[in-house]
Amino acid sequence: MTLRINTPDLAFAVFLIALGAFSLALASPLAVGTAAAMGPGYVPRGLAILIMVYGAVLGARALFSGRAPMPAIEWRPLFLIFSAVALFAVLLPFAGLALTSFVLVICAGFAAYDVRFRENAIAAVVLAAFAVVLFVMALGLPIQVWPW
Amino acid sequence: MDLIANLFANLATGFAVALTPANLGFCFMGALIGTLVGVLPGIAPITTIAILLPFTFTLPPSSSLIMLAGIFYGAQYGGSTTAILVNVPGESSSIVTCLDGHQMAKQGRAGPALAIAAIASFVAGTIATIVIATASAPMTWLALKFNAAEYFSLMVLGLTGSVVLAHGAPEKAVAMVLVGLLLGLVGIDVNSGSPRMTMDLMDLGDGIGFVPIAIGMFGIAELAVTLGKPQDRSLLAVKLRDLWPSWAEIRQCIPAMLRGTTLGSVLGVLPGGGAALSSFAAYALEKKMSKTPEHFGRGAIEGVAAPEAANNAGAQTSFIPLLTLGIPGNAIMALMVGAMMIQGIQPGPQVMINQPDLFWGVITSMWLGNAMLVVLNLPLIGVWVALLRVPFRLLFPAIVLFCCIGTYTANNTVFDIWVMLVFSGLGVFFYKVGAEPAPFVLGFVLGPLMEENFRRAMYISRGNPMTFVERPISAFLLLLTVALFVVLVLPAIRAKREEVFKE
Prior knowledge:
- The complex is a heterodimer.
- Chain A is mainly alpha-helical.
- Chain A is built from 4 helices and no strands.
- In chain A, α1 runs antiparallel to α2 and α3 crosses α4.
- Chain B has one domain.
- Chain B contains 22 helices and 2 strands.
- In chain B, α4 packs parallel to α16 and α9 packs antiparallel against α17.
- The relative contact order of chain B is 0.18.
- The interface between A and B is large, with 68 and 61 residues.
């Protein structure tokens, strides 16, 4: 017997059930109230349960709806772009906008398969300067520019 | 007569606001930057708006909305430019433009294709502006008759509409709406003051930020997915000498534009409607009406004019439910609600009554924005073509950077960047499992509004859920919702729907 699992559908269903369960746990201390005088927990709890039930139905259906593999994920762009964003969040508070932007562009640049070192470095300098000029000098946003 | 006099008085109020040098400047900037980002292949109007949204927050409310509206048209026009020149549709609304537009470009008629797209958009924009101005007053009158039960039912209808029009499997879209509604409730409950599902994070007190969600899902996630795909970006050489279509071609297109505009204006108002549906429908209609349907798909100029007119008209009239009822009909309008709320404006009938300057200023600026696009973008096509020649590997780090800075400046907190990262991850996951983010965003924005009206309606009816079907307007709206669901389930229509989305 061959498996007839639709993996993307099943993954989505598992996500729904997990999210529903997690939200239900988070909402459990909230007062539910009555239909006429709903407490803060009434609607969140209702929605969480609805999502879990719905996820269970989708999941059951995914088990028998025909084989479909999970589409491949390109890890390199995903990892590097997400890292670039994380670096921005970590660095910005103390390194300032100029250096942070430079690091972000260098990191994100390597997400492209056809990256060129020198080109990327030049782009990083230009974009960092551009960001400082546009956002801090022209638009006057309150962002620290340098670490000192 | 009174109505027309009022209309002119209102438009005059609007022009007084929109024509101030500062606002003209913001409208211009919006249209220009919107086109600039929208031209980039693979970046849909909604992504463009999400990325640029935070940069309008520092402006006063009317300027900010005027600039956003400009960004919106610019983004849409930029998307069409890319569709015609590179055959990469930014989003569904320009898929149809690709069909004949790119064929025209291949035959060396990229200039007329781009020009007719701009002219059709402008014609449609002009008519749609008048439609909005005339329809708004009666709609506002209707809106004042709405109570909690009606608002709730209307939102149910709107969300159902977004499910019907989602591209992926409708059952997944339903789930996405529910997830959006649930996440929209995170934060302090207005009625009781108790924090809900915040995981004791102070930063989540005001709820999950709208900007990080939009930028994460439509900006970063889209980029990460796009970069993973092999890119076919064969840019066609454009001869800019022969930019203008001949008079015969323009005349040939006039009926197509008018039909497209009419269809788009009607479909745009529908919940869940807007640009994408309008352009598909207009293309199909034009093909049916044409004496030479065999030309379609091989560079028929009407095949560019009709959908471009329709998507612009649809995009514009989708502002009607937002401005009058305060209910966004699609994900782009949900972004607009987010922007308005950050400016401290609660969208709805009160806006027109209490802030007529703002309301009419935005409406007239829509028309100005369209006019600017024609005047500006046709001469600037050379610039857009040059931009398309810049390799994507140099452009996308800039987009990542702007996404981060934009998210940060919305609230000046790094916390939002982490939120954005979480939603970028979710966005990629949703993409991989074939679930659309648009119904999610709509659910997220409507979540708190829906809960509030649901609770109020149930309170008034003393806990009797029959109130939703006993009140006539509410019952009618729910009946429409049921009809939509039936349409969705009927096998014949479902097959047709899949066919339409496949094209």
